[in-house]
Amino acid sequence: MSKYIAVVAITIDGKIAKNSHHFSNWTCKEDKDFLHTILDTCETVLVGNSTYKMALKPLSKRNCIVLTRSFKLKNLPLLTYCNPAIESLKDTIKKNKYKKICVLGGTQIYSYCLEQNLINELYLTIEPLTFGPGLSLFETKKTSQWRLKSSKRLNKRGSVLLHYIKI
Amino acid sequence: MSKYIAVVAITIDGKIAKNSHHFSNWTCKEDKDFLHTILDTCETVLVGNSTYKMALKPLSKRNCIVLTRSFKLKNLPLLTYCNPAIESLKDTIKKNKYKKICVLGGTQIYSYCLEQNLINELYLTIEPLTFGPGLSLFETKKTSQWRLKSSKRLNKRGSVLLHYIKI
Predict the structure, then answer these.
(1) I need a surface site. Which of A10, A86, B35, B109 has the fewest CB within 10 A?
(2) HSE of A34 in the Cβ direction (CA atoms, 13 Å)?
(3) CATH of domain A7-92+106-166
(4) A interface toward B at CB cutoff 8 Å?
């Protein structure tokens, strides 16, 4: 069975970005290092169109599935589009025999995966900032239960990495 | 100088409640114990009208300042109303010689205090739940910087208490 791992950087007040054009240049070096390490252990990255376009340079070097209702926009060697209204994401994953999938956002993708029961683990880096208004992690109208597997302080300022298992 | 300490229980996805009528019955025993301990060290509790009414029984036993634009609704011995449009909250605190104030929410009160530079410390208990839509911690349209002083796992399931200092 495939394992879906959501990786998220978030502020103290639970925001993953100020808006959909806000690039994640507010995360610490240690979080970026962790992200690269976990990406290296995954066979593919699952993202939305905005996230893919925003991080085109690093993501175009990796196997990516862009979950979108739009028509295909780019034709890149490592890029697969999946329109969940037409074909099942699970089938796309199965066809490619991916065992470990990194779910990288944004809000709609995290929410879709949570709704479809396609998040098994969640790595959450809490950066010591607050944004106020912004994008939340999930839009799913359902309370979900998790268990904390481990926590780690990443640096002196106090970025914290929490690892949760979905229960 | 008075010290303002915000105490918050929040979900993994950054929500302090599902809506303004949602009572905080989803927090763990260890968080409630911590809340009582910190309340005992503070001379007054600063809340909004909804939060006060929702937790009337425990809060009516403590010195409380209800920050509100409405007319006074109740006349209770330990209760003070403060309408920040008419009198300054700082003056109310000064007049009463309060040195340590516990800021207990909800969103509007946390946001008002952050805007007015009236949060010195923040205790954040992250409960291992996600709500999806709900009330955020801050509405203030300003990025604020914090430093993590300490973190503590509260129980087996993995509620985490983070203590931040505003910088």
Answers:
(1) A86
(2) 22
(3) 3.40.430.10
(4) 10-15, 111, 114, 122, 124, 126, 128-133, 136-149, 151, 153, 157-160, 162, 164
